[in-house]
Design brief:
Structural class: alpha/beta
Strand content: 5-15%
Number of helices: 20
Distance between the termini: 31 Å
Number of strands: 14
Largest sheet: 7 strands, parallel
CATH class of the largest domain: Alpha Beta
CATH architecture of the largest domain: 3-Layer(aba) Sandwich
CATH topology of the largest domain: Rossmann fold
Number of domains: 2
Shape: globular
Radius of gyration: 22 Å
Strand order of the largest sheet: 3-2-1-4-5-6-7
Helix content: 40-55%
């Protein structure tokens, strides 16, 4: 018999979904003003439309970062099960575009329905996947319940759970426990993640490491980055990668105040719909700039102070073209972004004070000397300029980063062995 607490938690969750239902089309329309992809494939968000491949190996990755992190696991599973159809689901247009570019040749790609009981039951009934793999911590109660009803084993892969997120899940403790107890296998990134998940109710938990360590820098993008570096001239290059709202203004102010004229700032916002917004911020800062998309093969004018990286899927190339990399989402309390890519390319990495979404990787990288933490934008600029003037220090940090990345590979094979396919 369900406990009263579980009934209470379920009631709260379903009430929240009911109240949100009229807002969903409005939200899609609003987001569609900037990202046209939100205006497409609405039927898929209700498990309607053409039926994806049945009996598939199903992997859900909410957006770009998770979809890219799944790459080594998908390769390991395809090697182990070459004849199995592959279904990928996501929630965002950029996640879908990333999936199409990486896996479109061999996978069926659709949006995951919103977590309403009818939609999830219809999805499971129509798709009938052999197994479902949820990347990181995508815990949707109706999804997990519908999978259990359909006897579809669910794997939580590359699972991470910060203290902040754990507190959020703990607000509905009975519902969270019921969900986690229905997960067949949890493959956690670290011991700390595993312990938090066990505390919330997960049972079969393995520590397998972070799949992002298994993503090797593509040779094509490394070559592209080297070509860019030659195109930009002999100037020192500071890269600010995966920046989020509120950070660019701080970075531009600190750069304008402290950086010599010969230093080039390459600014790559995390979300494509913000490219024009960030361009306006650069203009407001009074800094001469160019867009990467408009540069072509023309050499960069030495008067250009900022290059706006308004392109998708080229982050490894940006890392290869820079001398020092700052990884965004960390100056503001946003949890940080993936620093493993920058380290694997052999670039010295700086992060801000807020990296709780990448707690374990950041701690290990700082301990090995590959990454340095700064308190704010002014300290970031001081540290970056000091490194730009110290080639031996950059080399030491870069070598430490490559060693750090290489030492933690192997998660994909460990997770693949746990998938009950």
């Amino acid at each position: 018999m369900p406990t009263l607490r579980l009934l209470f938690d379920w009631s709260l969750y379903r009430l929240a979904l009911l109240l949100a239902a009229p807002l969903i089309p409005l939200r899609l329309l609003w987001r569609g003003r900037r990202e046209r992809g939100y205006l497409k494939h609405w039927g898929e968000r209700l498990a309607l439309g053409p039926v994806p491949a049945t009996g598939a190996l199903w992997i859900h990755a909410v957006s770009v970062g998770e979809m890219r992190a799944a790459q080594p696991l998908i390769q390991a599973l395809r090697d182990a099960h070459p004849d199995a159809p592959l279904l990928l689901t996501c929630m965002t247009p950029t996640g879908r575009a990333t999936a199409e570019s990486l896996y479109g040749r061999f996978a069926r790609i659709v949006y995951l329905p919103y977590d309403y009981t009818g939609s999830m039951r219809r999805f499971m009934r129509r798709v009938r996947p052999r197994v479902g793999i949820l990347m990181e911590t995508e815990l949707w109660p109706n999804l997990v319940h519908a999978a259990a009803r359909g006897q579809v084993p669910i794997v939580l892969a590359n699972a991470r759970l910060s203290e902040r997120s754990a507190r959020g899940y703990a607000r509905l403790p009975a519902l969270t426990r019921a969900c986690l107890q229905r997960i067949a296998v949890v493959a956690a990134q670290s011991d700390a993640d595993a312990e938090r998940l066990r505390t919330l109710g997960a049972q079969t938990v393995h520590v397998t490491g972070n799949l992002k360590f298994d993503i090797a820098p593509p040779d094509t993008l490394l070559a592209r980055g080297a070509a860019w570096k030659a195109q930009w001239g002999s100037r020192p290059v500071l890269l600010a990668a995966s920046t989020r709202g509120g950070e660019e203004a701080l970075l531009l102010r600190a750069f304008a105040e402290a950086a010599p004229d010969d230093v080039l700032l390459v600014l790559v916002p995390r979300h494509p719909h913000r490219f024009d917004e960030v361009a306006a911020l650069i203009e407001a800062a009074g800094l001469a700039y160019r867009r990467r998309s408009a540069l072509g093969e023309t050499p960069l004018d030495t008067r250009t102070r900022v290059l706006l990286g308004d392109s998708l899927g080229e982050l490894f190339a940006y890392y290869a073209a820079c001398d020092v990399a700052f990884v965004g989402g960390s100056l503001m309390p946003l949890g940080g972004q993936n620093l493993i890519e920058a380290a694997s390319v052999g670039r010295p990495v700086l992060v801000g004070p807020h990296t709780f979404n990448f707690e374990e990787a950041t701690r290990l990288a700082i301990e090995t000397g590959a990454v340095r933490r700064v308190d704010d934008a002014a300290a970031l600029m001081r540290e970056a300029l000091a490194l730009l003037g110290d080639a031996p220090a950059r080399a030491r940090m870069g070598e430490a980063g490559q060693t750090f990345a290489a030492c933690h590979r192997g998660a994909a094979a460990r997770v693949a062995r746990l998938v009950p396919f």
